[in-house]
Design goal:
CATH class of chain B: Alpha Beta
Number of strands of chain B: 15
Number of strands of chain A: 18
Shape of chain B: globular
Strand order of the largest sheet of chain A: 7-11-6-1-4-5-12
Helix content of chain A: 25-40%
Largest interface: A-B, 92 and 88 residues
Helix content of chain B: 25-40%
Radius of gyration of chain B: 22 Å
Order of helices and strands of chain B: EEEEEHEHHEHEHEEEEHEEEH
Number of domains of chain A: 2
Order of helices and strands of chain A: EEEHEHEHEHEEEEEEEEHHEHEHEHEH
CATH architecture of chain B: 3-Layer(aba) Sandwich
Number of domains of chain B: 1
Number of helices of chain B: 7
CATH superfamily of the largest domain in chain A: HUPs
Number of helices of chain A: 10
Distance between the termini of chain A: 63 Å
Oligomer: heterodimer
CATH architecture of the largest domain in chain A: 3-Layer(aba) Sandwich
Strand content of chain B: 25-35%
Shape of chain A: elongated
Distance between the termini of chain B: 58 Å
CATH superfamily of chain B: HUPs
CATH topology of the largest domain in chain A: Rossmann fold
CATH class of the largest domain in chain A: Alpha Beta
Strand order of the largest sheet of chain B: 11-10-9-12-8-1-6-7-13
Chain lengths: 332, 266
Amino acid sequence: MADNKGILVVGEIADGKLAPITAEALGAGKHLAGELKEELSCILIGDKVGDVAKAAIAAGADKVYTTEDAALKDYENDAYMQVVEKAAKDLAPRIILMGQTSMGRDLAPRLAFRLGVSAVVDCLELSIDGATKLMHCTRPVYGGNAKATFTSEALLQIATVRQKAMSPLAPDAGRQGQVVAFPVTLDAAKIRAKVLETIKEEVAGVKLEDAAAVVAGGRGMGGPEPFTKELAELAKLLKGAVGASRPPCDNKWVPDTIQIGLTGKIIAPELYIAIGLSGSSQHMSGCSGSKCIVAINKDPEANIFKEARVGVVGDWKVILPAFTQKIKELIQ
Amino acid sequence: MNMIVCCKQVLDPEAAPATFKLDAANNRMVQPPEVKPVINPYDEQAVEAALRIKDTDKAAHKITVITLGNNLLRDVVKKPLSMGADELILLEDAAFEGGDGFAVATALAAAIKKVGQFDLIFCGRQESEWDDGQVGSGIAEILGIPSVTVAKKVEVVGGKVKVERVTADGFQVLEASIPALITVSNELGEARYATLKGIMAASKKQPIVWKPADIGLDKVGAAARKTKVVKLFQPVKEGKCEIISDDDLKVAAAKLADKLREYKVI
């Protein structure tokens, strides 16, 4: 592997489009490729890649490899591993990047182990060490209570990047790039797990990941009702979405899909209103990229007041109706 | 069915952020002695997933827990036994310290091979210190078995394992051949409490302790790492929150809304 060169992003297709996380990984990869003066490529895997390849070029890829097979419609480890293992060996990149997504967090470690290396997952920053040309990867550890920078001396380095942590390039439809088919003959005997069903638990209204304003509640909400009443009312007013910290999800007050945090959604809205939640490091991992964090909590010692820009200490049941009313007046 | 659950003793992730102190010399975080370590919460849920299978036929299923570390507190690491697991193996030695996901998975896989019989292996989706989430996949890769990660439901149906795997907008239902490795997420639901009977039974059980040589490995822990920690640090938080106050909370609430207009975020 002494000649490993270039950066390969393992892309994802969401609803027939290039996934935002892949554009972010390509943005990060472009930076690294520039420092190394090497090529940035992207592999897209699915039943049908189509125009997504062009979108990957517009997002920064110099070369896009496409692997299409009906058996690759849904992500499944054993099938996708056959593609990425072949790509790692045949294309011999120096660095492989993926998103820290449902796919990436499952695929990157297994690929790393198969190739005898270790991945660095959920990275916030990637850089190239000038002297060694090795990638340095910085990521949160201890539930967000610290950060660590890792490197590995292996000739192939694998990392996953946290959603919303890296900046995508502005899409440039005029960028030139090459699309190359990368066919892989899947060995069905090596596919030991089968996807029987894919269930989407759609939440009505604005998607949490896309919302410019998010109103989130925590354990202090006391039950499911405030999420569909007070919080939903404020979110609707702000044309935003409702989120939650982990306790309301664990208590089944709200669906798991609206959990914000280390193991839930990672969001970075313009406005994040945190109500009745303490602001644990694990939760903040999911929202610390927000431009303006507002805290409403009865505990003045709550960690959320260390993270917020502005806040009020007190009972949300008293504060929230008056706050919502005033916002209504201001934006009308 | 023989089930193995891998559990780790960790700093208490639920403790206040201020309790986490940097031990820069050893590239790790530490907590003051009054904050007691715990079993990694996702690992407790992995024990719970195995127990739910055992509940269907107690005599037919056996659960062996394996914990890797050093200076393991017996009352902490025995918790899975008090919840209902059958056996506990400790990979306990100073040499096991300082490993990364690669080193830990290599040692656990070697221990699992020594146990010999396994149908299902469970791990937590990630441990709460390095939040790496690679050990489960690593063990599966070394043992050459399929893995399904981030599970919220695990059942054995017709000689296969059926898993609901959490995704960003819902879940996937997968079926895998056995033996298989499953990593468990918090969506599985709360782990059961230890019963008094369980605690009594656990207190009488002696864990089996294996050293690196017992699992046939020369290099473990820091010596078996593939990644290197360049630095570990605690980012400085500015913590300049402007607290809006007023004798009347409703007035404070209205002032807060005014502030957001001033910031141009509404």
